[in-house]
Amino acid sequence: MSGETEIQNLKSRDPFAEADEDSGQTTQTQEYIHIRIQQRNGRKTLTTVQGIPAKFDHKKILKVIKKEFACNGTIISDTESKGMGEVIQLQGDHRLKIKEFLTDDENGLGLDEKTIKIHGF
Questions:
Q1: Segment Disordered: which positions (predicted)?
Q2: Which of 21, 41, 84, 89 has the greatest number of CB atoms lying within 10 Å of its CB?
Q3: How far apart are CA 89 and CA 76, in angstroms?
């Protein structure tokens, strides 16, 4: 070696990108739907659904969910949610019911189950 060492950067990689399950490659483009639960006071909880594609009408989805799950809910706008997109907020713990609704082909939206992530407890 002649005193000069060559630094070689093989691949630049985004550490925050999700790893693709099949090939191990990281993909930043795939959008996930996040279902979260937040504790309010005592036994009261809020369920938030973030990342529903824009091709669906959020107001109609909220109306169906409220009627089906017998709960109240609201849509948090993009400006209030600080860049997280439109977020549907429901009273109570409805994480599993929401997942079933989103993946149901007949009565729901028929989305892929791999794109849904449930967070909390």
A1: 1-31
A2: 89
A3: 7
The CA distance from 117 to 53, in Å, is 14
| Euclidean distance between CA atoms 52 and 75, whole angstroms | 12
**Per-residue buried b or exposed e for 17-40, using 16+ beta carbons within 10 Å of the residue's own CB:** eeeeeeeeeeeeeeeebbbbbeee
> What is the tens place of the pLDDT at every residue in 8-57?
655 555 555 555 445 444 444 468 999 999 999 999 999 999 999 999 99
Distance, in Å, from the CA atom of 115 to the CA atom of 35, rounded to the nearest integer, reads 11
d(CA 111, CA 121): 24
